[in-house]
Amino acid sequence: MPPLTPAGALRRIAFLLERAREPSYRVQAFRTAAAVVDSLDADELDRRIRTRTLTDLKGIGAKTGTVVTEAHRGELPAYLAGLEQQYAEIAPQASAAAALRAALRGDLHTHSDWSDGGSPIREMAEAAIGLGHEYLALTDHSPRLTVANGLTAARLERQLDVVAELNAELTPFRVLTGIECDINADGSLDQEAELLGRLDVVVASVHSDLRADRAAMTDRMLAAVENPLSDVLGHCTGRLVIGRQQRNGTQRPRPESQFDAEAVFGACRDTGTAVEVNSRPERLDPPMRLLALAAEIGCVFAIDTDAHAPGQLDWQDAGCARAVECGLGADDVVNTRTAEDLLAWTRSG
Fold it and tell me: Residue 250's pLDDT is what?
């Protein structure tokens, strides 16, 4: 096994524990720790390890802290090595996941500081180049999501000019123009149709009224999927397996939205809309049973990170592991395609 980053080692352990049907709280502990490590820059992580203050951070315990420290030294953490030996039958699946990850040419769902991301577009692009990507779709939020500083049509127009200038500098790497477009309650998309038609990638996602009844949510999602401007159905259930920190200190998971998954995935198959395998540790959406259903129905997929910072762009490993578990390969995933082939697909509408 090649050297893993500290966060990568933690996520690998979570994957092994989940595959072995270990209790969910054990799996969650390693996913939470990985999210904490992802939030640290390299200097801060190094300082915490040197001063032995890593476990002062909420979400990092003695066991996870040891894993982080050993991986930071370039070692295979002893706890991970033990799991690899204990669950040796999982190794072929891990190899298949690694092969799928190597086949990915880019990421179709990322955010910059133009909306609710934390870094400029250039930094996101340079991080993607460092990971070996050939392209990165910039999909900042649409205007309705004001809490995420969603882009008005005018701001999105300006972003297109910025991306064009950056692409001239970074060629052959390419920043694909895009948006994560809210699916409105009536199923329409939250941006001007003419402008959406000019973008390379449109990820359509539900962010509001997540507790709508099953029939209403199904109709809403079907309308969006059947819109020829939609390319990818983002984080379809809206669930959070790791709850976001609230002002009162609580951190509760968010349950899945209810919809007719067979109907929605059938529409995705029929329209050629990709189902997103969202790799964010707190999302991991769709859940495995729905991911398996979408695979059985014959959908195509996009394995994305939904990254809001450069260090989150390596989260595709988790998505690949989940995809392989459901029998998916490179031919099922649209972001294994070259930029030219990908754009031919998105523009076929």
Answer: 62
Please tell me the predicted confidence (pLDDT) of residue 92: 61
Write the Ramachandran bin of 59: left for phi over 0, alpha for psi from -120 to 50, otherwise beta.
left
- Residue 22: band (very low, low, confident or very high) from pLDDT cuts 50, 70, 90: confident
Bridge-based pairing state of the strands 174-182 and 274-278: unpaired
> Which range, of 70-79, 232-241, 242-251, 322-331, averages the lowest pLDDT?
242-251
Task: With beta carbons less than 8 A apart as the criterion, state whether 175 and 138 touch.
Answer: yes
Residue 3 to residue 9: CA distance in whole angstroms: 9
Residue 41: alpha-carbon gap to chain centroid:
20
CA distance 183 to 175: 24
Distances (CA, A) of 275 to 51, 113, 128, 261, 295: 44, 26, 22, 11, 9
Looking at this protein, which amino acid is placed at residue 240? L
Q: Global pTM?
A: 0.77
Q: Residue 86 CB: number of other CB atoms within 10 A?
A: 11
Q: Residue 170's CB: how many other CB atoms inside 10 A? A: 16
Q: What angle do CA 138, 297, 347 make, to 5 degrees?
A: 35
Contact indicator for 100, 330 with CB cutoff of 8 Å: yes
d(CA 339, CA 251): 39
The DSSP-derived string for 186-255 is TS-BSS-HHHHTT-SEEEEE--S-TT--HHHHHHHHHHHHTSTT--EE-STT--BSSPPPPTTS----BP
The per-residue pLDDT for range 131-160, each reduced to its tens digit, is: 899 999 999 999 999 989 999 999 999 999
Radius of gyration of the chain (CA): 20
Q: Rounded to whole angstroms, how far apart are CA atoms 110 and 163?
A: 14
Residue 188's identity, in one-letter code, is: S
Residue 62, pLDDT > 60, answer: yes
pLDDT at 93: 67
298: DSSP letter: T
Percent residues over pLDDT 70 in the chain? 94
